[in-house]
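Record pair follows.
FIRST:
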Amino acid sequence: MDKTWNKSIVKEDARAKQTKLAREKTQQNHPQPGSSSQVPSVFLWEEDIETGFLLKKAVSQNKAQHIWQDYPNNQHCYESTTNKWDICEALDPEPEKVMHFRGGNPLPTGDTSHDKGTQCKV
């Protein structure tokens, strides 16, 4: 009876490891979360102004899709065991920020220091 129970645990551990590795492979390029039930949960860590502590807040799938690109990849942290993403500016407090504009040059007229593309690094 003990041997059967031990084999069952080994099989579950192997299955859990396969699941974890598959999740890590899927998430390795920081894909924007989708809307299916299989997507990872997303949590946003924000500083409490009064205490200075970081507070972890669950983010809806819809909101995650909207804020995902506001944070660079080095501010995303994936946990494959629990299938969740943490977004936290404290992971890299001073990254090179990228602002997205929906058309044209966001710089004042006559400023030609950037191309007229859709991204402007600040």
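SECOND:
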Amino acid sequence: MFGQRKSMTDQARAKARKASQELNLDALDDLLDDFEAITMERLQSLRDSIRKRTDQLRWDDLRDNAQQEFNRASEQTGRYVRRHPWQAVGLAALVILAITSLKDRS
């Protein structure tokens, strides 16, 4: 890709020299078109790389936030179970009872 850009730039320079020597307006117009193509290609490439990087940063941020929330909830649950073991056993029994009664209905 970089070799192609360099080649296009070299071609554009050659056209500029030729146009300046001959004062050919059509050649100068072609030269401007070439520069526009090179510039648009570079801008598109930069935009794509920036978009990919920002998307990656967003996913990284979401993943980190989810991990922190999971760790916080896990720590709080562990503290609650250690402080209130019988309530935790009772709650687990109620959950099991609810699941089995729903399962029996189906």
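COMMENT: The CA atoms of residues 5 and 38 lie 7 Å apart.
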